[in-house]
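Need tokens for this chain, all 439 residues.
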Amino acid sequence: MTDTSSNSTTPHADAGVDVVPIENTSLGAFYADMNPAEKRTFWACATGWALDGMDFMIYPLVIGTLIAMWKVDAGSAGLAVTATLLASAIGGWLAGFVSDRIGRVRTLQLTILWFSFFSLVCAFVQNFDQLLIARALLGLGFGGEWAAGAVLMGETIRAQYRGRAVGCVQSGWAIGWGLAVLMQAVLFTMLPPETAWRWMFGMGCLPALLVFYLRKNVAEPEVSARTRSALAAQGRQASIWEIFSPSMLKTTVLASLVGAGCQGGYYAITTWVPRFLTTERKLSIVGSTGYLAALIIGSFIGYLVGAWLADRIGRRRLFLIFSIGAIVLVLAYTQLTLSNQVLWVLGFPLGFFASGYFSGMGPFLTELYPTHLRGSGQGFCYNFGRGIGALFPALVGQLSSSMPLSSAIALFAVSAYVLFFGAAFLLPETRGRVLHVVE
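Here are the structure tokens for all 439 residues:
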């Protein structure tokens, strides 16, 4: 096999796996040592992920307005999130497979155009059923964007910096979430709710502009291009089902459960906390902005710290520590009798632990699969997790009709984080693994 990540490797406990030592673990070291091509890819993916996060978080922020305007029950409102995430599971797997065939960059461009278009469509729907369909179609591109972008970053960045670089790109999600909250505060102050929500969805078409930058400035990773050339020379192509072969099945199953646990907990929290604040805590939409800001700032710091820890202590330990922290914070935030002031403060650590582990997911999945299966494997596992996690917002909404919303959030979020902990415990550490061109 050809080493494409480093000239200095050391044996790994797993046969045939090389790792590079991570000597400088400071958070900013990776960026200072990047070449111009790596920096362009970094900023393109970070911007794409931020805009992706903005598009997704628009719906949870307007869910209360739509419930009141269209007289939709909470279970049906949660179903729209579930439909988006289920579609993203399919889109992510397909986009990952396509990226193994036509390249990471081209696939990324196609997925960005797709979800930008359907965000704009959401602005013009006339009833909830139309919105449900538009959000589901948006989800196909939403899932595909992560699959292509995460593999692109994982293959572009050298092994010794992969955790921090990919993790810092992940922090763009919190920035996108913050942009969505800022849009909500501005638009709902300036416009009546019946109009403001349409403008929010309309702003979701902005990611399409990123395609022009990608076409001009971002190159295909060498390890991906050379692998596709090698397979073509041999008359071979990877099968979409190869990730379920006997040699890969255990990895695929456990990594999929990791994805289901980490995302199920996250979506149960982020979908319904805005509604929890305006119902059980009696805050107005604008009044809840500060509470969401604490959650978002904690999330952003969590992504950065998680990126640092992914290279410092390893991907697996990051997952185990943060899943325990998330369980404790979810229970405290939703089940303890706290003043609004204390709840505001508690939003920071909740965002920190409920988000920071995502910084390790991209590099972890990149390192679990060989190059010719990386898009399919990474796209399937992460987005299978989205598909299972997609059930949680709808189930929380359904259960909230028979118990307090806070209790429903806690029940499903804690269950998800327990699954996350157990599956991560059974998988190997991958920190520093070298990526190879296919034999």
